[in-house]
Each structure stands twice: as C-alpha cells, then as structure tokens.
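User: Please predict the structure of the protein below. I'd like the answer in structure-token form so I can feed it into my own downstream comparison script.

Assistant: Understood. Taking the following sequence of 230 residues as input:
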Amino acid sequence: MKKNKKSCDLKSCFMCRLAIDDWKHSIDLNRKNIVFKKGEQIIREGDPVNGIYFVHNGKVKVHKKWGEKEIIIRFANNGDIIGHRGLGTHNSIFPISATALETTTICFIELDFFLSTLKVNTDLTYQLMLFFADELKESESKMLNLAHMMVKGRIILAILKLEAQFGTNEAGFIDINLSRQSLADFAGTTYETVFRILNELSLQNLIITKGRAIHIKEHEELKKLIDGAL
C-alpha cells in the first residue's frame, strides 16, 4: 500500500461524478489516493469506520465471513464506492471486508468530510439512497437464490453477472482474473462444484475455459438453464 496523490482525476468516481463543481476543490484538498497491491486488504471486517473508499482504477472483491467460510457480496471496479455499508449513527464498524484483486488505486475520504459532502450535494445524497435501495434488492435476491435456486443456476448466474459488470477482453473472455474459489464464494458453493459445473458447460459447448478465464458462447442457452434451476 502506498499513497499516490496524482492519480485521481476528480471526475470518475461515484462521488466526483455527482458533486457540484464548486465542491470539487474541497474534495481535492481532503482526498487521499492509495495504491493497493493484489491481495492487500483495503477494509477489514470489524474495524471502526474511518471513512469511505472509491475505486479509481482496479478491481476489488467485497466479502464477508459466513461461519467458517467466506461469501463474496459483490465486486467493485472503476468509479465504484466501497465501505458505505459501514455508515450508521453510533459506533459504526465495517460489516464487510474489501480486498484488491489486482493493483488498485483507491480514493479515500474521511468520514466527517464525506458526511459534510452529503449535506451539501443533494444529487449525490439522492443517488446514494437509490444505490442503497438497488443493493438491498440485489442482496435479497441473492439470499432467495441461495435458498431456492439449484447450484448450477447460481454458478451460471454468477458468470453472466461478471460479464455484465466487467465486459470482455479482445479474445472474448470475461475481463476479470478470478480464481475458481472466488467464483465459488460469489455463487455460494464449493470449489469442487464450480470445477464440475464449468466442465459440464464446456462439454456442452456453452462456454470456453482457458485457465481462470471464461468465455460465454451461448448466452440464451445459459439463461434457459437458469430458468430451469428455479
């Protein structure tokens, strides 16, 4: 982890996109840009909330302990906010952890200044409220899927969501370097199950795998399998 003051452009992240122009000078004075290496923890579950983090460049997994296991709640990339789940009224602690999946530049804003920013920038506050609502719906949907959807459907849904968020590279593979264990943690299953299901989908010529990389060949056929897994 190292500081890098020059990386942020005051335009790209969730906060800067929505803040009024007159407030951006204050953001510039209060921001701290920090570079995290792959595997470094940005936020640790249980630590007191000292501020809010925005991804300037890179990829991050947001995860939480679940008994002896871990679940990945979501992924964040360029411009996304992380650490907002720790916002609250009294003795707030982070209920999640966040870890860099690759070299990632983070813009850190101390909590007091962020709360002042919300009071001044009404559009930011409104959009953050909508973001919380969408995230709550997504969390509820994921819990229902864990309870009612067969594991094959959950794995396929996870792959489709990753492609929707990160897009594909020039070779057509989903543009995130994700281990099979991380995919299992995101889908709420085990490494062995992910390995088996991906092999099945490859044999059916619905996807192509190359190392960690996944290329989706038949989107509609995969969606039909999800419908059948409900």
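That's the full token string. The longest strand covers residues 69-76.
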